[in-house]
């Protein structure tokens, strides 16, 4: 079995920047196609579509309550890295539309590429001891405290969120968005295994 090694601060920094940049680009592509996703990011996307508030504002603020839980259950290092990742993603999402535009963007392609790129980005964050906060942290706590599987917590939240989205958005686009969410979750389920990589 491979010996575990610790990442240096520089390695962690590049991992957080890579992960959040991949997710920010994927998110820009997703929203440019009028699509959505799950978790707190999906909630922030839906709110940004239906209110004057931007994704960055909602995503940053909505994650704040979860930091206390992360600090309590997962430690200050994980919490700090997650806070920085959320801040980086929020900031990048503000400037991404000024840097990149799309002349043609087919919704299904955008959804699938979003799932792939975000999956890789989140894997990078996981590997460097961070996350994008939110429901994942709550799910881990509920699993440890009450034995409720974290995956079911996330699935229940996403089911409710997509149900609400059908009321506000084009049902076809919501359906296409589901394809991207499935790809993202498959990438995480298949590749995020602590026994298969050195952290």
TrEMBL record:
Protein topology in the membrane: Multi-pass membrane protein
Cellular compartment(s): Cell membrane
Q: Where does it sit, as one GO cellular component term?
A: plasma membrane
Transmembrane stretches, by residue range? 21-47, 83-102, 108-126, 172-190
Query: What InterPro entries has UniProt attached to this entry?
Result: UPF0750_membrane, YitT
Keyword terms, alphabetized: Cell membrane, Membrane, Transmembrane, Transmembrane helix
Protein name as it appears in the record:
Membrane protein
């Amino acid at each position: 079995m491979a010996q575990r090694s610790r990442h240096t601060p520089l390695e962690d920094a590049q991992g957080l920047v890579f992960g959040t940049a991949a997710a920010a680009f994927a998110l820009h592509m997703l929203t440019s196609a009028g699509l959505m996703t799950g978790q707190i990011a999906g909630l922030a996307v839906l709110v940004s579509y239906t209110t004057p508030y931007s994704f960055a504002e909602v995503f940053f603020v909505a994650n704040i309550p979860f930091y206390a839980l992360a600090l309590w259950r997962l430690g200050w290092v994980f919490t700090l890295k997650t806070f920085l990742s959320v801040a980086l993603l929020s900031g990048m999402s503000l400037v991404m539309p000024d840097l990149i535009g799309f002349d043609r963007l087919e919704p299904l392609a955008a959804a699938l590429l979003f799932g792939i790129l975000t999956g890789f980005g989140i894997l990078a964050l996981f590997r460097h001891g961070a996350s994008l906060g939110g429901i994942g942290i709550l799910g881990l706590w509920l699993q440890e405290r009450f034995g409720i599987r974290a995956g079911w917590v996330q699935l229940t939240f996403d089911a409710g969120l997509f149900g609400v989205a059908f009321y506000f958005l084009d049902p076809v686009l919501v359906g296409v968005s589901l394809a991207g969410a499935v790809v993202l979750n498959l990438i995480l389920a298949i590749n995020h295994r602590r026994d298969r990589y050195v952290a």
